[in-house]
Write a structure and sequence with these properties.
The complex is a heterodimer of chains A (333) and B (148). With 333 residues, chain A is α+β, with helices and mostly antiparallel strands. Chain A contains nine helices and six strands. Chain B has two domains: 95 residues, no CATH class; 44 residues. Chain B has five helices and two strands. Classes of the chains: A alpha+beta (333), B mainly alpha (148).
Chain lengths: 333, 148
């Protein structure tokens, strides 16, 4: 028995009412149906993101200040460069995919193989980049203090660059005044039997406050966006007062509960939307690999049509299409 | 199987000799659009940062005017440009990479209209409610206080 299927058993009888309504084959049309429903799922996510953003319109984090990192370029603020690179990689892999489809139309097995391979490489680079982006986002940058009301207070100082006074962020690691042994992590061997607590924040609010009091230049920045489209910077007295009265938790990095960038929902949506999209890319790569091996084995050569490449191509382009929207609404708008 | 492709974009302004060269042409176009987006996002020109129109005030017809021109009244022109450029990119990905241009008209409408109408409705409902919740928190005397 053949290990691959050269005939699918559906030739000429896929539909009761003729083989190709709308001149699209059964498989292609079903892929389009799936894409429409998946598009609705993604737009549901992005519209929910819009809902939360409109709800917190005066204090939503500014993406340019969050995503500033590029691999191998430490300590430089380069907003959007890396995401633009990722976008280009994905569009590029879309191009190699459509070239594979085109080569399939000409029954050119060698070219389909090469282009499918390049598509897979592009997808892998994209997923890897996204993993890096996540790791950077989770690890965090400057750290912040969360207030009782769940707001985020960040730190920095006013510096003059090229004659223009700008607010420059300062990491909490750089000014904190650490006291020894103020808080000991509860382990399950102590006290309550077999109950442990999660990892402690790096510092206590008290340590941050003392560090802030000792450094005259450091100011607190709130989440509230002022009329210039920038986050509000508090005066020195207000800064100390805010941390003393309202500071509750020191936050470094991001997870599903808190994040140092601002509203907690921002990180939740980031993980959920880019994660769901990344999962699509990952499954796209897996499907592409399966098709790639089928091409090498000559399955489609024997079937007499490379339509399967076309169907997978539709899915792959759709993933690219979704990224175009995620890019706009997460990083640009 | 249909092998024939429509080889022109921009309503026939640019014609290509083969499907392959059309693909590369579309790639160049998409890259240019992405570069414009990134450039604008980095530069943030001053004249694109404030809405071009102010809200009409008065009765029913001014409300209607606010709805019709909402994209210019309530939105930064920069964001409006980003969204338009995104839709342009989406169009060329769907039409040329996904070969929507070569499908029958009814197939095209079946896919595109369904998605577009449902998504517009979804966006309208959710953004409207998001704005309402914002007003609840930020009224002159809000019932719920979050800033502490």
């Amino acid at each position: 028995m053949d290990s691959t299927v050269a005939r699918t058993g559906t030739e000429g009888k896929a539909w009761g009412g003729g083989n190709k309504p709308l001149r699209a084959s059964y498989g292609k049309m079903m892929m389009w149906f799936f894409i429409v429903s998946d598009a609705l799922t993604f737009s549901g996510f992005l519209a929910a993101y819009g809902f939360s953003r409109f709800k917190f319109i005066k204090e939503w984090p500014i993406a340019d200040e969050v995503f500033t990192h590029v691999p191998f370029l430490h300590g430089q603020e380069l907003p959007m460069i890396y995401v633009a690179f990722m976008t280009f990689i994905l569009i590029m892999s879309s191009v190699t995919m459509v070239l594979a489809v085109d080569a399939g139309h000409h029954m050119n097995k060698a070219k389909v193989t090469i282009y499918m391979f390049l598509t897979i490489i592009g997808g892998a680079i994209f997923v890897g980049s996204q993993a890096w982006e996540w790791a950077t986002f989770i690890q965090g940058d400057y750290g912040a203090v969360q207030t009782k009301g769940g707001n985020i207070l960040q730190f920095g100082e006013n510096v003059t660059v090229d004659g223009v006074e700008k607010f420059k962020r300062i990491s909490i690691d750089d000014f904190v005044a650490v006291h020894a042994g103020e808080r000991v992590q509860h382990e399950r061997k102590n006290g309550l039997w077999f109950v442990a607590e999660g990892s402690l924040p790096p510092y206590t609010v008290n340590e941050i406050y003392n560090g802030l009091a000792a450094n005259q230049n450091i100011l607190v920045r709130t989440q509230i966006i002022n009329k210039d489209g920038e986050k509000t910077v508090l005066s020195r007295e207000e800064s100390l007062k805010q941390i003393k009265n309202n500071g509750k938790l020191v936050v470094k990095g991001a997870n599903l509960h808190v994040n140092e960038y601002g509203t907690a929902l921002f990180a939740d949506f980031f993980f959920f939307i880019t994660g769901f999209h990344g999962f699509h890319v990952f499954s796209g790569v897996v499907i592409n690999i399966i098709i790639f091996f089928n091409v090498i084995l000559g399955t489609y050569e024997r079937r007499g049509s490379y339509e399967m490449v076309e169907k997978v191509g539709l899915y792959w382009h759709f993933v690219d299409l979704v990224w175009v929207f995620v890019f706009t609404f997460f990083y640009l708008v | 199987m249909a092998h024939e492709h429509k080889l022109e974009i921009f309503r026939g302004l640019v014609k290509f000799k083969s499907n392959t060269s059309k693909i590369w042409g579309v790639l160049v176009f998409l890259t240019i659009v992405t570069l414009i987006e990134v450039g604008l996002g980095l530069a943030k020109p001053e004249w694109l940062m404030a809405p071009w129109m102010t809200e009409f005030e008065g009765g029913f017809f001014t409300t209607l005017g606010n709805i019709i021109f909402s994209a210019f009244i309530y939105m930064k022109p920069l964001n409006l440009i980003f969204i338009i450029l995104t839709i342009i990119k989406a169009y060329y990905i769907t039409w040329d990479f996904m070969h929507m241009r070569d499908e029958t008209g009814s197939m095209r409408k079946m896919v595109v209209w369904t998605a577009v109408f449902l998504i517009c409705y979804l966006i309208f409902i959710l953004l409207q409610e998001g704005g309402y919740v914002f007003d609840v928190y930020n009224a002159k005397t809000p019932l719920i206080k979050r800033d502490f």
